Amino acid sequence: MEEERKDDGQQLTRKIKPYKIIYPIVIGLAVVSWMLYDEFDPKAFDSITFTWASAFWLFVALLCMFTRDLGYVIRIKILSGGKLTWWQSLRIIFLWEFTSAVTPSAIGGTSLAILFVHKEGIGVGKSSAMVMATSFLDELYFIIMFPLILLCVNQQDLWYMSDTTQAVVDSLILFAVIGYAVKFIYLVILSYGLFRNPRGLKYLLMKLFKWRILRKWRHSANEAGSDIIRNSVELRSMPFSFWLKTFGATFISWTARYWVVNAILVAFWFGRYDWAQHFLIFARQLVMWIMMLVSPTPGGSGFAEYVFSKYLGEFLPNAGVAIAMAILWRLISYYPYLFIGAFIVPKWVARSFGKKTSQKNTKK
Asked: CA nearest 328: which of 267, 237, 256, 283?
């Protein structure tokens, strides 16, 4: 147990080394600098005017981010059965968001989330169930919202961009369909394992990981199967009201995340967009999220700024302004978690993996 404790602490402290925090910032700035060099035109910024209304709507954008985190905090507190305090819940969310910010988007901070929850006084089994439930709820939001969005917006407006070929549009649609299919299959498998037949799912996993190409991960698959069996008992016993509240918090969090961009655009071009355009901007962000999942860079750094400027650029006066708005978007929605995490993580590691903690565990 002592060795595991040290490994966990070392794994987390490696993520807070200066280059781990600077790396995504440098990537983002490098990509933005390249785009500005290619598209920069001083006259392009003549259309931007900063007023008190701009300050108000930028505050709304920050408020959306606050609402996003508040939804996550409420959800994790409900999932803990009220065992976590508000401060503990907030600390877990910031730790989680920080690890997501310094790892590739496809990996995220989930790999260490169980550790964060467990170190706040929740048992390993319960911690695992809570993290698995958040994964289920996040995927459920996307699976429900994406088809609803497709039904409510003009398909040509959603997929077609100015100065793009049909081949690019077809690739984008195919990419979105594949991404959605992967999420849907994952949700079906997770739901089947958690709520229907956990032992059957573990059996299938073990059969699958007998293949030579997957054999080296068989031990991890066995542990995942055991987690699903254990978590199934925990989660199936929850009443409908529990799932209603946790999904409500999930819905608030993700929706607030997407409205950040709308608030930024209104800040500088109030009255320019009607409700249909705002809904289309919201819809395009769902598609952007699929794109960012395959980004190999930490937190989608660089890739996110590029996709924003291209995919949402036609809602802005010109390419130069689109790049500037991409920077502002990331300043509000991404970079703060790097700095907050850099401040919180060292203290948390010292408290959770320090000598006093070790002595307490030894006494227990």
From this structure: 267
pTM of the model: 0.82
Which two structure tokens, joined as six digits, stand for 293?
């999942």
**Residue 298, beta-bridge partner list:** 104
Using the structure block, give the residue that is written with the tokens 């933005």: 32
Joined together, the tokens standing for residue 290 give 């699929």
Q: Mean pLDDT, to the nearest integer, of 232-240? A: 83
Number of continuous H segments (helices) and E segments (strands) in the chain? 16, 0
Q: 31 is in which domain, residue-wise?
A: 2-363
Q: What percentage of the chain reaches a pLDDT higher than 70? A: 76
DSSP 261-327: HHHHHHHHSTTS--HHHHHHHHHHHHHHHHHHHT--SBTTTTHHHHHHHHHSGGGSSSHHHHHHHHH
So what's the pLDDT on residue 4?
43
Sign of CA dihedral 345, 11, 68, 234: negative
Tokens encoding 363: 């006494």
Q: Specify which of 77-91, 101-115, 338-352 reaches the highest per-range mean pLDDT.
A: 77-91
Q: How far is CA 175 from CA 149, 164, 186, 213, 325, in A?
A: 17, 16, 17, 26, 25
What DSSP character marks residue 234? H
**String of DSSP letters for 25-43:** HHHHHHHHHHHHHHH--GG
Adjacent-strand bridge partners of 104? 298
Domain count, the chain: 1
- Measured between alpha carbons, how far is residue 64 from residues 39, 49, 247 in Å? 30, 22, 18
The pLDDT tens digits for 115-144 are: 888 888 888 778 878 888 898 999 999 999
Residue 298 has what DSSP assignment? B
Q: How long, in residues, is the chain? A: 364
Contact between 342 and 62 under an 8 Å Cβ cutoff? The reply is no
